Amino acid sequence: DVKVTQSSRYLVKRTGEKVFLECVQDMDHENMFWYRQDPGLGLRLIYFSYDVKMKEKGDIPEGYSVSREKKERFSLILESASTNQTSMYLCASSLPRVSTYEQYFGPGTRLTVT
Amino acid sequence: SQQGEEDPQALSIQEGENATMNCSYKTSINNLQWYRQNSGRGLVHLILIRSNEREKHSGRLRVTLDTSKKSSSLLITASRAADTASYFCATDSRILTGGGNKLTFGTGTQLKVEL
Fold it and tell me: Residue A20 in contact with residue A8, Cβ under 8 Å?
């Protein structure tokens, strides 16, 4: 079974803090994704990575950065956390097949910024 | 704007009944996927239907796709309390650098199955 793990289930940080969210997958997937999920808005893509050190912006990258130094690990960084970044953050991974593939999700990190 | 919009937003049924959820989207797609999310957890892939398919079955799940209407439906037959979850459709909208498709998720349908 594919396993995607996230470093924390719940996280509380203060405004202005630098926040690191870690994601690790054990299936040697090339693609990794970071989403945020908010009520009424569904999942929105923040960043994705298709290989080590390779990344591309998603739909809402402002206020976030990412790092992928190893294939299995994809980190989301909030440079200076703000209250509007309070959300559920979901990491996912997938193979790079073009037409038929699924994304495997981690359990999520619920981040509260106070 | 959201590519996928689910309807209804919330659905409450009795155990044993069928549950139908609908998804509408706006642009052409290669495939459409349905995911389930249990409360406060990650999403789990349920089923994928390609754009050249009209219907697909997997256990108690039946998915239909009408590309002319840009809509899909997910039917769960003989529902169980364990089916209580949120259900999301996801459409692929473009090919990503390096391969793979960018998925756009809808806002979801919250299904509650009562005993």
Answer: no
